[in-house]
Amino acid sequence: MKALKFNETFGSPRPLRGRGVGGEGRRHTLRPDRPWASKLAALIAGIIVPFLSIEFGLASKLSRFEQSQPHMGTVARIVVYAPSVEVASAAARSAFERIRELDSILSDYQHESELSGLSRQSGGPPVKIGPDLFRVLSAAQSLAVRTNGAFDVTAGPVIRLWRRARRQRVLPEADRIAAALDLTGFRWLTLNAKQQTAQLAKPGMLLDLGGIAKGYAADEALKTLQQAGIKQSLVALGGDIAVSNSPPGKKGWTIEIASLNLPGAPRPRALLLHNEAVSTSGDAELFLDVGGIRYSHIVDPRTGKALTGRRSVTVVAAHGIDSDALATAVSVMDPVEGLKLIDATKGAAALMVIQTNSGIQTWKSKRWKNEGVRSCAGLTSQEL
Questions:
Q1: Tally of domains in the chain
Q2: pLDDT at position 13 over 80
Q3: Alpha carbons 277 and 108: distance in angstroms, whole number
């Protein structure tokens, strides 16, 4: 559900489709040892991405390794600093396997996923679920309460309507939206922490974790790398990025946020991050144009309607599960209320850029306003 462009800079900016991270110095690339991966990635992402690269650190014996694979409907990218290619490859394999495992649990596209199985048992008794699904649903429900439903993982029926609308290029009928809304509502989802069960009260309810799952997967992949002894790493899943310690000789990982590419929109900004996460929600690539009106893939679960107009919301938080979910929630909230939510969340900061009838408007949370000053557990924002 993300639409964000990052630039990857090796000395000078180079625009890319999708997301990226910054870096400096020479980079050496090797051919991938799995030729099928590039074909699969091209099929999913429209670009050939799997490759392994090495960048020798100037102030450390560690070297920079990078690899990408297709996962969770996007390109998963891992960058690590390690003493050898063997150590880096083993750690990356474990992290990619963890992402694959989580996709098999949290995906609403996979019929056999644990999430899909839970949805099929809607209207029935409580269902015992695994720890990963329970953690994600618990975090989702907590934010749903805080936002009074602006974030709601039970919005699967509404989201599927708009997916079909984008494919068919026809707006959903009002009665279909009303019927989908009748099956939506976070209060119809009950969790029992002691029994580790979940219950969907109404038959036909569908869960969709598109606004939180990738952030959680980035966190878990980062944790897997740390367990493998990798202390300096970055994991990117679409518009969700989580990083650990800074690269050797650097103050942090340089992440560039692309602008809306509209007249009057702010220029691209760079964030310098360590031991935190960043997510951006927007409509740069996924949208429906009907009658000259642009309908975003971002749907307000409270109304069942897709957002109109251009917008981009970037959130930095301590963990990817938080930055991902907050960016999703703030996207559908009134800007003032959205920033109140961010300011009330420890360690979070946000930048909102929205196209309005009076032009491009920008909102910043209190922590984001301190440009050039460390905040948000290590956030530095600067104009490029």
A1: 3
A2: no
A3: 24
